[in-house]
Each structure stands twice: as C-alpha cells, then as structure tokens.
Design brief:
- By secondary structure, the chain is α/β, with parallel strands linked by helices.
- It has one domain: 3-Layer(aba) Sandwich (Rossmann fold).
- It is built from 8 helices and 10 strands.
- Strand 1 and strand 2 (19-32) form a beta hairpin.
- The longest helix has 16 residues, at 178-193.
- The radius of gyration is 18 Å and the shape is globular.
Length: 252
Amino acid sequence: MAAILHTEKLCKSFSNGGIQHHIIKNLDLQIREKDFTVIMGASGSGKSTLLYALSGMDTPTLGSVFFGETDISKYNNDELAIFRRENCGFVFQSIYLLENMTVFDNIMTGALALRKNSPELVKKAETLLKKVGIEEKLWNKYPNQLSGGECQRVGIVRAIINDPKILFADEPTGSLNSASSRDVLDIFTELNTDGQSIVMVTHDIKTAMRGNRVIFLRDGAVMGEHEMPQYGTDDVKKRQERLQAFLDEMGW
C-alpha cells in the first residue's frame, strides 16, 4: 500500500533550563494508506510527540513531514490549520467537546467550516450518530449529560464528519471503562475495514491489537515493527500472544 505520510530525518527537541532534550531523533517513517497503525512505547518515548508532528499539530525542530508529495513542515500556522481541517480527524483521551453546545452542535460546528450544504451535513451527522450507537434522544443533550463512552463516540463522529484522509487518536480509550473501550475500538475497527487510515498512540496491548501494524518507539527512535492481519481475520488469542512476544522482545 502506498504511503500517505512519511518523514525524513524528523527531529523534535525541547529546551528546559538551558538543557536540550531530544524527543524525536532523525526518524524516517512511512504511514501507509488504509493501515491501522499503532504507535507504542514506554512513557517518554516520544509517542504523542510523533503523533502531533505527523498530524501538523506541532512543527518539527529539524527534518520533514510529507503528506503525499507536500512537505507540511514548511507550512505556517494558518496553512497547518487548513491542512488539519481538510485532511485530519482527531480523537483524544480528553474528549474536548464544547460544554455549552449540544451533541449535534458539537459535530456540526467543525463540519460547517468546510462545507456549505447544511442539509446534506445534517443527514450525514444523523447517519453517523446512529452508526456509533448514539440514540436520537441524546442529540440535543449537553456533554455533561452523557457518559464518558457516549462522549467519546460523539468525538469520533466529530472527527470523521469531514471524511478525513487520516484519523489520529491519542490514547482514545485511556479514560474509559472496559465496556466503553470495547465499543470505541469496535468503531475504529469498522472504520478501518471501510478503508479509513488510522494512526493511534496507546500503551494498552488490547487496544493495540486492533491495528495491523505496531511501531515501537524508544527514546524517539523506531526500535521495531510488528505486522498483523486485519483485526477479526485471525485468532484473537494467538494475535495477542504474537504481539506480546514482540513487545517482550522490545523490552516493553
């Protein structure tokens, strides 16, 4: 599968008290189209920093991030904002729904920034909400009237309403209980089966199992990769055992 994103000699550093901390170090990486790519590693390994650089949420210190043939690391802040709006969807551990807006308004706010056909968007939002299991009686509720799992499913709809080329997720199940986590991961699996490219950071092996490619970082460098069939096409127990063996090899 062709690369939708790739990096060349990507570096990210921070200065703290006059000391330079190198988070990502000369990283060359390809993100393939339609893959469900999972980024793993110990705390401080650079997982989230890499995700933010790949998505245009942050700019590298050195090196480049290419979306197709375009080097987005040369974009200014306004250009990056347009790039993200037109090409990326985001799901975070903290859901960041706007508390003073209803479920439906939270979704439509981002969508209307790109498209003018409001009736078409309304119909699409309704279809997606039903698809992720958010009943119509909840559409006019506010985030504080929903459970954490329901809020995260609304967040997913908000992330995919504009048909992003890539969906980025940073610990999307980190604050959910096991049942809600499973529901959210089922949605991600279905999206990927339908062809959605996904890049997800996680520290949890059961979450990582949903991907077909696991990249392991240590100290800002790729230490190894593990390829798997698409989730649901192989034995789950054996899948977990093989992934666990890979992570043990990586010193996880």
